[in-house]
User: Fold this.
Amino acid sequence: MKSLVPISLALLTGLSVCCVADEPAELAVVVNKSRPDSADLGELRQMILGEKAKWKDGMGVVAVETPADSPARALMMKTIFKMNDAALKRYYMLATFNGKELAAPKEVASAAALKKFVASTPGAVGCILASDVDDTVKVLKVDGAAPGDPGYKLR
Amino acid sequence: MKEIVILFTLAWATPIAAVAETPDTHTAAEATGTQATIDKLLSVIAAHEARIEELERKLDETASGDSGGSAIPKLPAGAPAVPQNVAPPPPPEIAPQQPAEQLAPSTDTAMGGHNMSINGGPVLNIRGFFDFNFGVGSIANPLVYPIIDDGCGTCGNARTPAHTTFQAGEFDLLMTSKLSDHLSFLAEVVLGPDDTNVFGVDIERYQLTYRANPYFSAAAGRFHTSIGYYNTAYHHGNWFSTAEGRPIMYLFEDSGGILPVHMVGLSFNGEVPHTEKLGLHWIAELGNGLSSNPFATESVQNFYSDRNYKATNIAAYIQPQFLSGLQIGGSWYHDGLNPSQAQNALPLPEVRQNASSFYIVYFSGPWEFLNEAVLLTNHPMGAPSSFRSPMAYVQVAHGFGIYKPYFRYQYVDDKVKDPVNLLKGTYYGPSIGMRIDFATYAAFKLQFNHLFQSSQMAGNGLDAQLAFTF
Assistant:
C-alpha cells in the first residue's frame, strides 16, 4: 500500500501538469512614457505598418520591432498585422506600387534593446512579450484592455 | 622564457601537423567536405569584411555630414556577395539615444531590389514584374490580354477559334525616385505583345508627386483614374493580383476596355482632417479623357487632346479603424466627348459621359472580398435617352498557407448601339482559380473561365500563369 502512495502522487502530478493548459503568450504594446495610455487596435496597426506617421499630438511615430524569428514578432504578425512575412512584403510593395510611402518598423536585436529604444525615443512604439515588460516603458491599453485583462486581443 | 614558449608551441602543433600531413587517413569525400567548409567559412569572412567596410564607410559619411552618395554598398575587390545559405548578422544592440535613422527597417518598402544613383543625385529604384501564360480555349487569354482587331472572346467578334497558345504577358518595369522630402517620381514602363506578336512599349504611368502632408498631395502626369477600387489598387504587375488579369470592366483601353482607366493630367488626394477613426480620404482629378473616337489608334490622349473639354473625377473612401482591412468608397467621373472633332472624325453629336462607381472591399488575414459596381452612361446631346452600361464583379479568396483558391463572377452589359464604346454586348460568367505562392516573389495561378456572351455561344477557357517580381 505504501508503495502505491508515491505512484499515485506521481500520477497526480503528471496529470496536473499535462492537463493544465499553458497560458497563451500575450503581446504588450510598449511606448515611451510621454505617450497616451491607450489606443485602438486599428490605429496601432496603422502606426506600426507605417500608414499613420504621427501621434495625435503631432509627434512622429517611430515603430520598432524585434527580429523575425522572435516570439514577439510572430505574435505581432498574427494579432496585429494578421498576415505572414510574404504577405507583408507584398503589402509594402503594393503600397509603393500605388505611390504611397510607408515606413516599415525598424528592427532591433531583442526585447531589451527595444525597451531601451522606446524609453529614449519620445514617439517610439513597439511590441514585446508581456513577460518582458518592465517599468522603463509604458504599456498601452489596446481597445481598453491591458495584458492580463479578460478580453485582451493581443494573445 | 621565449624558448619555452616556442618549444611548447612546437610540441602542441607537431601532432596536428602530422595528422594533417597524412592524407591516407582521410577519404576523398571527407577532404572535399573539409574544403567546402573552408570555402564556406572564407566566404562568410569575406562577407563580414565587406559589411564592416560598408559600416565604416557609413560612419565616415555620418561624421563628415555627407548624407548623399550612393546607396549601393561598396564592396572590396573580389569580395563575394553574402552567401544565401549564411544567416545575416543580427541587428546591432542599440544604445539609448541612438537616432532612429540609424536603424534599418525590417522590411524593404522602397522597392529597392535594384537601384542606382549618380553621386549627388537622387536614387532611382527599379523593380520588375513579368507573367508568362499558357491558355487553352477561346476565352482563356482574352481575359488576360484580349485581342480586339481580329477576333476575341470579349468583343463579340466570332472569328477567333478556340486556340492553345503560350503567351508572354507584360514585362513591367516600375521606377521610383525620391527627389526631396516632399517630392517623388514614379513611372511604369510596360513592354507587351499584341495580336501582331510584336512587342510594344508603353509608358503606362508617370507621375511627379508633391506630398505636402497627409492631408494634401498633388501629382502631375499619367495615372490610373480613381474609378472604383481595382483600377488604382492593381496596375500592370500581375503578381500582385490574386486572380489572373483584370475584371472585364477594368480592361485597359488598348485591350478593348470601355472605362477611362487612364488619365493624363492632375491628381490631388489626401486624408480629411479629424476623421482618423473613420479614415476618410478624398481624391480629385482633372485631365484629358479618352479619345472621342473609339477607333483611335491610341485611346489615351497622351499628347494631343481632341477637345478643350477636360475630364473630371472625384472620389472618396473610408478605411475605418474599427475594422482593419475594410475599405468602402465611390467615385463620379464626367467628360464630354466630341466625335465630330476627333482625328478621323465620326458623324456623331457630342456625348456627355459619366461613370459612377461604388465598392466595398475587405481584407482580413487569409480572406479577401472584392465587390464593385460601375454605371457608365453615355448621353448623345439632343438624344432623348442615354446609353447605360452597368458592370460589376465579385471576387472572394481565402488563403491556406501558400494556396489561395479564389472565385470571381463578373457582369458587363454594354449597350450594342452605344456610339463611343468599343466593347459591345453582354458578358457574364464565373472564373474559378487557384493561386500558389511557391516562392516569396513568384506565384503560379490556374484559372478556369466560363463566359456567357450575348453575341455568341458561351465560351470556356483555361489559363495557367507564372507571375513574379524581380
